[in-house]
Task: inverse folding
């Protein structure tokens, strides 16, 4: 698949504005976002790229921003190199876990070291929502628990869960690029108990799990939480993320309407992960 990199310059530049712009761009097919010092870089499969859609977002943008953009198609083969050069620095979660590209030198001593070469898949630990669930995973007892990682992206959550003793682990993603990247990263970390499946909620068979992670987005979660609930064992835990604090009531209500018990949330920069029990 070919991707188009689009660089947005916002004036004035603020985190709120880049958050809103990213959310609107995600609605028209943009898949990954990198915030630099004064711009937002966003990536979309070239087949979905439309200047008309972007212009519409800019015209109706809810804040008083001046937004301009430029775009270039990127070569698939250069992606790793580009990523390494510009985007993905090693990240340490809760002093216990480091996530790094296989290109980086192995610095420091950590209990868990995860190698991720994300290419176009989402999930390096840098996004708040990934970090929130990684922290949840570090705090949980996952020993011999069966785990489902829905919307696995790079498989980073599935990999840490496996390193924390979860067994077996199923990693599912609807996007072929992410699915392939998940497989590569699982192999790169020498993990043998994570199965991967390409698909969405419909791909879940009769299997059930002790723990389910789903870091996707508000709308997909609201649609698929009933399916996740069915796939959760009694006594099990569902952790969902990919939305803002203001979305908690809607997500909570959906969970409770399926009979799940809301137990709380973790937050960072307005992003949250919500935990429910069955
Ligand atoms: N789990 C990773 C990646 C989250 S990004 C992390 O926490 O960082 C969300 C992922 O969900 C993307 O890879 C996207 O392809 C996938 N996705 C989107 N819609 C989905 C759906 N309906 N079912 C399963 N995966 C989906």
Result:
């Amino acid at each position: 698949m070919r991707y188009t990199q689009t660089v947005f310059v916002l004036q004035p530049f603020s985190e709120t504005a880049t958050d809103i712009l990213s959310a609107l761009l995600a609605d028209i097919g943009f898949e990954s976002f990198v915030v630099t010092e004064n711009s937002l870089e966003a990536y979309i499969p070239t087949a979905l790229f439309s200047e008309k859609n972007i212009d519409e977002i800019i015209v109706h943008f809810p804040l008083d921003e001046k937004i301009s953009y430029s775009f270039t198609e990127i070569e698939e083969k250069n992606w790793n190199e580009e990523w390494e050069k510009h985007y993905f620095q090693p990240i340490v979660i809760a002093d216990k876990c480091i996530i790094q590209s296989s290109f980086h030198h192995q610095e420091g001593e950590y209990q868990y070291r995860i190698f991720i070469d994300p290419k176009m898949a989402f999930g390096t630990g840098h996004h708040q929502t990934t970090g929130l669930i990684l922290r949840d995973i570090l705090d949980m007892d996952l020993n011999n628990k069966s785990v489902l990682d829905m919307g696995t992206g790079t498989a980073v959550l599935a990999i840490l869960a496996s390193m924390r003793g979860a067994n077996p682990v199923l990693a599912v993603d609807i996007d072929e690029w992410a699915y392939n990247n998940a497989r590569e990263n699982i192999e790169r970390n020498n993990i043998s108990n994570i199965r991967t499946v390409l698909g969405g909620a419909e791909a879940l068979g009769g299997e059930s799990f002790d723990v389910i992670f789903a870091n996707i987005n508000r709308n997909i979660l609201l649609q698929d939480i009933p399916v996740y609930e069915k796939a959760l064992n009694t006594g099990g835990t569902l952790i969902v993320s990919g939305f803002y604090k203001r979305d908690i009531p809607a997500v909570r209500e959906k969970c409770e309407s399926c009979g799940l018990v809301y137990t709380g949330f973790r937050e960072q920069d307005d992003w949250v992960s919500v935990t429910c029990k069955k």
